[in-house]
Amino acid sequence: MRILFLTRSFNGLAQRLYLELTALGHEVSVEFDIADAVTIEAVALYRPELVIAPLLKRAIPEAVWRDTVCLVVHPGIVGDRGPSALDWAIVDGERAWGVTVLQAEAELDAGPVWASEPFTMREATKSSLYRREVTEAAARAVTRAVQRFAATGSRTPAIDTRGARGRQRPAMQQADRRIDWERDDTRTVLRKIDAADGAPGVLDRLFDAPCRLFDAHAERLPLPAQPGLVIGRRDDAVLRATVDGAVWIGHVRREDRNDAFKLPTALAFKDEVENLPERPIDAAGPAEASGWRELRYEVEAGVGYLHFDFYNGAMSTAQCERMGAALRFALTRPERVLVLFGGTDFWSNGIHLNVIEAAESPADESWRNIIAIDDLTRALIEATDRVVVAAMQGNAGAGGVFMALAADQVWARHGVILNPHYKNMGNLYGSEYWTYLLPRRLRSGAPGTLMDHRLPVQAARAAELGLVDAVFGDTAQAFVATVRARAAALAARADLPALLHAKRLQRRRDEADKPLAAYREEELARMRRNFYGFDPSYHIARSNFVRRVAPSWTPRHLAIHRRGGA
Ligand code: COA
Q: How far is the CA of 149 from the centre of ligand 1 (A)?
């Protein structure tokens, strides 16, 4: 079928649906929801059999849905309506939720239901639920709806929605999200911030300045502190007391600054945070000495696991340096298998574009950040005394993908999406030793084709290409359990010394052919031009990205219908 995606952006969910449907043999073209006239034009150009809206904030024009079946993905159960579906589900403590695919009609979210899929809620942020449970359920629901449409072509699917418990909910306002620090316990504070993460955040005040709060994590306190008081910091987060404990606030967006965007709290409030007592935590400390930490090293059955759960998968210079220290520690350990677990939502998305944007000289900070991530990648490539495994629970993009290729083995959860290219970020050339790591892995096609393609790649396809070695686990839990079992089996292999010997020899041969330093120098020469050269594309793209500027046109590599001068 010819399917047109109408969407606000080509986000993770849209990418997943795109990959599912193209893998089933459908042709999918994408149009961003920019203006009614543009949508109508796209439909006229493409003449799709079906329109699917993975992410929409406004109604589809009647001129479109009157003549073409339009299916809208709603992150709510049957009967639920309104733009804050997940926000309410989190705040209300729903245990079971779902995704519904319904047909667009005059009234929003009120059309006939084509498919719905349930999922179990998790205590997590809205974006985490969206990236995992909602995305998986949407993939199933949309596939089923498309099958149904292909089979019947019918405009009225026979799904009985009587007795559905969903209902119309209003858009959640900041008044609904407001935290009462004198009353709300840690769980309530967390739920409120989780329900507003990644957008719009909870409007609050920190250090007497208005700001939006994001990225919260619970903490127990040995002694109670005055609720609402900021009592410490760890890395880039601050600790704020609640009535029964405390929460770490990792990211904020200041409201008293023009043109502010989301930043690590310690960067947004540099002066205020400076004198707060540091509450360090050892990355290798036992899990029960818990408390929130971005980096964690644990050992199980002779395997070392390094977790690096950076918000949004973005890795600033400071985060790369902290991870470098954790990695150096891991490399002093006797475990012969090192699993890089990344974060729960993202494995890594490369350098931290927001932190770069906030720097006095974004070009200098870009440079520092790429050097820091390159150093990390080199340390992984040179870890020849152990088997290194990159285990992707979540998606990876740009430099994050290539850093993973530094591992000997890349394992990915079913459904994980890789964006193994840099060019969408203002034609960035990229580093992270990709010119060394990519060609030695690619099984088919040229590295340039993949890099120029600019399209997402699903784990199964990445395995065909050679970027990934194994794909398993339908859920995050199943994936993690299998990773642990496979890694333990690897560590127990009798031929492990022989494997490591072969690894060392290969590295030595590669180094003799062309030293790592040469790859790095060539890549960085191109990156220097991106950062400091005449062409400002990267700086413009980064600025638009961190400020979430809505696109004003759909890129040609997505909009098939706009190619060839159409
Ligand atoms: N630096 C800072 N923030 C980043 C980031 C990065 N490298 N990559 C992703 N994010 C943030 C986004 O700004 C967004 O923030 P929000 O919570 O305020 O909404 C969040 O992560 C989720 O990103 P989003 O684009 O909505 O996720 P997605 O699943 O739709 O898309 C990517 C994933 C990787 C395709 C996309 O985020 C991307 O292109 N990232 C930039 C990658 C890059 O160019 N890195 C630099 C070169 S190494």
A: 33
